[in-house]
Amino acid sequence: MSTSISLLSAFQLDLIEAGCDEAGRGCLAGPVFAAAVIFPADYCNPVLNDSKKLSEKKRMELRPIIEQEALAYAVASVSAAEIDRINIHRASYLAMHRALDQLTIKAEYLIIDGNKFIPYAELPYSCIVKGDGKYLSIAAASILAKTYRDEYMESIAHDFPDYDWLSNKGYPTIKHRQAVLNLGLTPHHRKTFKVTEPQLKMVL
Fold it and tell me: What is the DSSP letter of 163?
């Protein structure tokens, strides 16, 4: 099993393996995005890592490399309205399911970032805590989900400049939460998410 400097190529070698991760779970606004990535079993990339450990510039540099070198990849989302209807936990898994649905190669085994998952198409799977820092396919999925979601939030930010989405991407920063308290919710907000009085000492 090949590795990069720090990340593993595969969890198992008998079946076609897809790594899955999501982005935007903790946001107040916008969809949750997820991606699924299938790499060759011996894939190696010494730069690929958890999206949270990479700069925005590096994530954007890696995205076309992932898309070119993956055997298959897909990105999908679940809207704020759907999140309100089914809750963010189920929405995160639904986004992963939608991404898996779109893969041009059928996955036979799934590795999921985190400790829970709703089974998909009766496929075997393993949940891996902090998997985006351990396996290349999950790291790649984290980068795709993050970059596509960030671009989406930037595309709607211009219509709602007071919420600072260009900067916070929908996450609950002090400025974002203060804007909600002062101006109310937009159609892009998750109405089931509680917005409390911002604490000035918080740095998000």
Answer: G
**∠ Cα 159 152 142 (to 5°):** 150
The secondary structure of residue 156, as a DSSP letter, is: H
Nearest to 59 by CA among 149, 169, 147, 155: 147
Those residues whose C-beta lies under 8 Å from the C-beta of residue 156, and which sit 6 or more positions away, are 30, 165, 188
Kindly give the parts of the chain with pLDDT less than 70: 1-5, 197-204
Reported as a single tens digit per residue, the pLDDT across 79-91 is 999 999 999 999 9
Q: What is the DSSP letter of 161?
A: G
Q: Cα separations (Å) of 147 from 8, 16, 23, 41, 182? A: 22, 25, 9, 24, 29
Query: Which residues, listed in sequence order, are joined to residue 36 by a DSSP beta bridge?
Result: 20, 74
Phi, psi of 121 (to 5 degrees): 50, 30
3-class secondary-structure state, position 44: coil
Is pTM beyond 0.85 here?
yes
Helix (H, G, I), strand (E, B) or coil at 3: strand
The 3-class SS string of 75-133 reads: EEEECHHHHHHHCHHHHHHHHHHHHHHHCCCCCCEEEEECCCCCCCCCCCEEEECCHHH
